[in-house]
Amino acid sequence: MTELAEGVQAAGSARYRALVRRRILLLGALALALCLSLLVDVSTGPASYPLPDVLRAILSPSQASAQLGAIVWAIRMPSALMAAVVGLALSVAGGQMQTILNNPLASPFTLGISAAASFGAALTIAFGITLVPVAADYAVPANAFAVAMLTALAIHALSLRRDATVHSVVLLGIALVFTFNALLAMVQFVASDQAVAAVVFWTMGSLTKATWPKLAVTVAAICVAVPVFVLRRWSLTALRMGEARAASFGIRVRRLRLETLMLVALLAAVPVSFVGTIGFIGLVGPHIARMLIGEDQRFFLPATALCGALIMSLSSIVAKTLIPGAIIPIGIVTSLVGIPLFFFLILRNGRPSW
After folding, report:
1. What is the pLDDT of residues 257-282, one digit of tens each?
2. Residue 51: alpha-carbon gap to chain centroid
């Protein structure tokens, strides 16, 4: 009997080690695909350069021509890295929202944070209204971030009520989406034609104004939020088994949900404030990671980050190559790419991927 038990345990351990190896290999493949996509993204644009020349300019700038070095490091590298970083942030935010809200369709848009950021940016673009006194170059993103975080604080205040539930938080987010969209339409109605054109372009999402300082701020937001998710990985994994089960393990579910909610708001607000409204990344990225890896946060979290970064990087390449000589707003591309993936995930085997 003892030998049988030991054999079963050994077989289970072998299957677990094989599963871990498979997940690590998948993460490695995603990381390699992301590196290749970044390299292609840097090499493409109105003027395309061979991949070996671009790689030489990245690894040995002194050996590249002055023109190529300036284009790679001053223009294309910030844009390519910003695409990956924004995709990472939005995908992680969407994945954790789906975890704490137990809703397969949750994303940063569910809470109305992206819509709030769009409205805040529109106020500055159309009327010069700013909530935070900053330099003119950062007035639009600062106002977008301020309105988005105020919205997140309002949602946080509601969730502190005793009768607040996950469903009430989601419903509030949906109501905020419609509210801010209506306010944005009102701004466009009363603003000048030039201001309306600028607001519409901003809401489409664009990486053309990415700079190293903006990239640094976005990376800083990720460095604040992601380590906390790593520390809470076991608690978040347990939460996927249900609130009652998580609470039986001694997890403070309410506190965990509120903490995660605020960090998700930070991850969603900062990228959107710099590049505009980006759709479907926070919805599709986590579902693809879940299909490949599963629910274990030790692997799900990096897989979600890599999937979001890869989708966004590939979308950046498509935006620069779909129409020769033109750069399509990245928000349009992510929506066009995300809609087919969204339908595939929902209709796969006749049920949602959840």
Report:
1. 888 888 888 888 888 888 988 878 99
2. 27
